[in-house]
Write the structure tokens for this entry.
Amino acid sequence: MKNRLARVCEVLKRELGILASRDIDFHSDLVTVASVDITPDLKQAHVYISALGSSGASRRALELLEKNRSHLQTELSRRVQIKHTPHLHFHADESIERGTRVIGIMEELGLLDENKK
């Protein structure tokens, strides 16, 4: 069962990435679908996005995705054959920022070897 959920998440991630890049203008910000988590009943999907560009890129991308949620769900139902098209919930993926912050702290503490960077 876990393998099925993982496969569904990967398919949703791929298709949402294609739909978002094709149908939504993010105003020159680079927006990617980082990951998708789906509930076991396949009715709710949490979509994590990463946005690079001008300041506030992540907030604007989330607003645009929210605004286009029904269109994305409709297109997703046409492209992915599953019993229920999940309700999409969009979230900012902050893993890159967290990783950068951790590396910065490690550098300040002298825990990283300068030659390994």
Observations:
- Strands lie at 30-38, 44-52, 87-92.
- The two ends are 41 Å apart (CA to CA).
